[in-house]
Amino acid sequence: MLRKGKWLVVLVLALTVALAVVGCGKKELPAPQQGSSQQSSGQQQGSGSGTITAAGSTALQPLVDEAAKQYMQKNQGVRIVVNGGGSGNGLSQVFQGAVQIGNSDIFAEEKDGIDASQLVDHKVCVVGMAAVVNPNIKVDNLTNQQLIDIFTGKITNWKDVGGPDQKINIVNRPKGSGTRATFKKYALNGAEEAQGIAMEQDASGTVRKTIADTPGAIGYLALSYIDSSVQAIKIDGVEPTVANIADNKYKVWAYEHMYTKGQPTGEVKKFLDYMMSNDVQQSLVTQLGYIPITAMKVDRDAKGNVTPKK
């Protein structure tokens, strides 16, 4: 009897140890967290996930890039991706929901193929735009009509406008560019550029380099891109300065818009609020060659109508 009881005790102990070993080998998998890498690949992250995507205007891109860097330093869990592509591309992408912010030099109402009523406009600053030339041309002023005649192909040699005997090489932006649309509307009075005579570059930085490297070149840039490698041109003797833009004496300027589809929420709203904060408006905006909206003495609507600022 004692021997059988002893073996029973041994058997119970052995089973207990075996069950303990099995229990130790089983691990509980943590529940997937919202926004973690365990989401299905087809699931898109929203603004609450900490990722913000913006695309569009290359004229506005330097400001948004720098503001995004500052914002991410202050908010370590947020990632902001800023791409160019032109204002038309930015407006189309935000309307389609491909990005959360569409950066644009033009009003959404000026873009064909989208329902502007679905987009919310956030004006963050003003940018001036100037005709620029290769510095070797030694021309710093053109009349408005001379500028029109150059871009429409009627004037093809710099000697006809007081420059050297040299062919004029035009550097243009693609039709989806807000910089091109603004320049055409306010510098060329809406005149159609000549077809087939201009080089086309799809980004402002590339335009600047092409003009700097090409003899006889002329194009146009946002003031935020102008440096010593190119020469800005006065129009009818009026220089593209902050003071002249603020009262519309110099007319080639545009609002810089950051559009959202519907009212922004979450991190997108916080980032847009940051764009209007003192950190950006009183520092980055002026440092990078833009103009605070508060400095403007006039307002302009999508049709180009200008009224004194109230």
Number of helices: 9
Integer tally of domains? 2
Secondary structure: helix percent: 25-40%
Instruction: Look at the structure and give the mean pLDDT.
Output: 86
CATH class membership of the largest domain:
Alpha Beta
User: What is the strand content?
Assistant: 15-25%
- Element-level helix/strand string: HEHEHEEEEHEHEHEEEHEHHEE
Largest sheet: 10 strands, mixed
Summing up helix and strand content along with how strands pair, one would put the structural category as alpha/beta
Shape: globular
CATH architecture heading of the largest domain? 3-Layer(aba) Sandwich
Q: What's the CATH superfamily of the largest domain, by name?
A: Periplasmic binding protein-like II
- The first-to-last residue Cα distance is 107 Å
Verbal overview:
The relative contact order is 0.17. The chain is 32% helix and 21% strand. It has 2 domains: 49-126 and 254-308, 3-Layer(aba) Sandwich (D-Maltodextrin-Binding Protein, domain 2); 128-246, D-Maltodextrin-Binding Protein, domain 2 (3-Layer(aba) Sandwich). The strands form 3 sheets. Strands 1, 2, 3, 4, 5, 7, 8, 9, 10 and 12 form a 10-stranded mixed β-sheet that branches. A two-stranded parallel ribbon has the order 6-11. Strands 13-14 form a two-stranded antiparallel sheet. The protein is of the alpha/beta class and 310 residues long. The chain contains 9 helices and 14 strands. Helix 2 (61-74) links the parallel strand 1 (51-56) and strand 2 (79-85). The chain is globular and about 60 Å long.
